[in-house]
């Protein structure tokens, strides 16, 4: 076998190997695309059904097979839904609770986390372990004691039971803040003390400006929790004037003999919009929050 024949065979083998590699990569890419597309359809289908139902006539909501494109499109469903749920009052109540909850968690959780990270006192680790036991207590266990306590304070059917506990800190956020603050070099505290900063001065001028990712994820998660909270408002709020968005959505099934799905879906779409907008405008904090909660430790 001469050199030309050997070279030709090696070249052909190389070309075939390269072709097989490209074919394998294209196949894997196609499979990945199909899987992602199927997952996207699976995730988006409920939202698409909600949008479609919100634009249908009442009699066409439960037709089988489903009619994905409404005919005719009934825009007045949104007006009727907002009017029925008293949207201005309900959304105002919810935003008020959400804003105070975010402020409460940011202040209390970061202060507690800063104390656990920077102050050396006897029994600090034991106290931190006691705080972490809050992870193991389901929220439902504390509802009855809270209801009794708030009843004696005459706080039932007010916003206090929904807001005041947020100023006491949450075990998860305290843990997250402590772990994040431990990653900030202590030398910065020493330099600040030499410049005349005290405990709160270091917290306000050094720690918080370096903790924007932490503050972002605490604010976002508190917003999501307070906005979507149904159980606590159901227990502590009794009057229509103090209802939150979650309670207002539930009233569609309580006040009607049969659930008006077209109106409920229209109202649900408005309730979902703040969460969607928050995600689009704060995507980097969602990602940073995943990194912080998964790596810091």
TrEMBL record:
Record-linked InterPro entries: MetI-like, MetI-like_sf
Compartment annotation: Cell membrane
Record SUPFAM superfamilies: MetI-like
Keyword Nucleotide-binding: no
Lyase found in the keyword field: no
This protein's UniProt keywords: Cell membrane, Membrane, Transmembrane, Transmembrane helix, Transport
Membrane topology summary: Multi-pass membrane protein
Transmembrane stretches, start-end: 31-51, 95-117, 126-148, 160-181, 202-224, 261-282
CC terms in the record's Gene Ontology section: plasma membrane
Record domain ABC transmembrane type-1: where: 91-282
Main location: membrane
GO biological process terms held by the UniProt record: transmembrane transport
Family: Belongs to the binding-protein-dependent transport system permease family.
Record protein name field: Carbohydrate ABC transporter permease
Species: Paenibacillus piri
Organism lineage string: Bacteria, Bacillati, Bacillota, Bacilli, Bacillales
């Amino acid at each position: 076998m001469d050199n030309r024949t050997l070279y030709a065979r090696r070249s052909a083998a190389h070309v075939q190997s390269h072709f097989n590699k490209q074919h394998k990569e294209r196949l894997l890419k196609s499979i990945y695309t199909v899987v992602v597309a199927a997952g996207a359809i699976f995730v988006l289908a409920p939202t698409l059904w909600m949008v479609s139902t919100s634009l249908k006539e009442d009699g066409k909501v439960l037709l089988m097979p489903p009619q994905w494109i409404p005919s005719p499109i009934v825009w007045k469903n949104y007006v009727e839904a907002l009017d029925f749920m008293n949207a201005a009052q309900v959304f105002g109540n919810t935003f008020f609770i959400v804003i105070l909850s975010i402020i409460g968690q940011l202040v209390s959780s970061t202060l507690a986390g800063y104390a656990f990270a920077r102050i050396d006192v006897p029994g600090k680790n034991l106290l931190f372990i006691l705080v972490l036991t809050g992870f193991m207590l389901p929220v439902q266990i504390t509802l009855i004691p809270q209801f009794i306590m708030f009843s004696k304070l005459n706080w039932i059917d007010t916003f206090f039971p929904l807001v005041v506990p947020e100023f006491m800190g949450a075990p998860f956020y305290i843990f997250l803040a402590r772990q994040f603050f431990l990653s900030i070099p202590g030398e910065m505290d020493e330099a600040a003390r030499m410049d005349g900063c005290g405990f709160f001065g270091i917290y306000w001028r050094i720690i918080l400006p370096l903790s924007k990712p932490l503050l972002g994820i605490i604010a976002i998660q508190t917003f999501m929790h307070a906005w979507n909270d149904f159980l606590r408002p159901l227990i502590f709020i009794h009057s229509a004037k103090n209802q939150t968005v979650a309670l207002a959505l539930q009233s569609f099934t309580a006040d009607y003999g049969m659930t008006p799905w077209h109106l409920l879906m229209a109202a649900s779409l408005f309730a979902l919009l703040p969460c969607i907008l928050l995600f689009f405008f704060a995507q980097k904090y969602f990602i940073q929050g995943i990194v912080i909660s998964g790596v810091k430790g």
